[in-house]
Amino acid sequence: MPDTGPVPPADASAAPARVPARAWLRPALMLVGGALAALLFVQVDQQLAAFAIGVFSLFMAYWTSPLRSGPHTPLAEAQEGAREADGRAPTIVLWAPGDPASARLQAAIRAPREDLIWVNVFKDPAAQQLLGRYGGERMLPLALQGEDAARIDSVSELFAFQDRTRQGGAPGDATGAGSTTPDLGADPSGRSEAPGGEEPGSPRV
Predict the structure, then answer these.
(1) pLDDT digits (tens, 9 = 90+) for 63-84
(2) Which residues make beta-bridge pairs with 173?
(3) Percent of the chain with pLDDT over 70
(4) Quick check: 79 and 174 in contact, CB under 8 A?
(5) Of 171, 162, 46, nearest to 113 (Cα)?
(6) I need a labelling partner for 79 at 20 to 30 A (CA). Which of 128, 162, 166, 198 fits?
(7) Distance from the Cα of residue 79 to its chain's centroid
(8) What are phi and psi of 77, to 5 degrees?
(9) Strands (E), the chain
(10) CA atoms within 13 A on the CB side of 154
(11) How far is Cα 104 from Cα 153, in angstroms, rounded to an integer?
């Protein structure tokens, strides 16, 4: 399979990472709902409860919004670290603040792990382009191991994905790891016009 290599710096910096407007919908609903609930408690002279609800709604609005920073390593740096890793290459996980599945996975894995590299797609245009090649935000959080990729819903699925891709010299091993970045100039459908089925460099999920 041809090595497409990481996205060139010029391509990655051509446009800033875009935060979709729908990413702000959940935090906005949190704020509005919390404000209405707090107002109701104020009207019945329950100021302490109103204050607690207000604080909680503010926290939840921040936690579910793109404002939450979270762990982030630029995609190019993550790919370089995966290629230079001794032994088994770490798994790159594409995530986004405000995505419920990403939040659940990060809440379950609180401590830093040497076998995981987190990439915030809202901070890295190259990562956002790569995610689009695999299906977009509906695939978050997306785990990348060599040339394999999978949407992860839980920690057990993440560990199972790592074991599956690393067995028997799979692309997840550092000695045989290929680039996780598909050719962004290729046909987005991932199909080759020549007879024979899939294009050899198309992403595999």
Answers:
(1) 777 777 788 899 999 988 888 7
(2) 88
(3) 71
(4) no
(5) 162
(6) 198
(7) 14
(8) -65, -40
(9) 91-95, 116-120, 142-145, 148-151
(10) 3
(11) 8
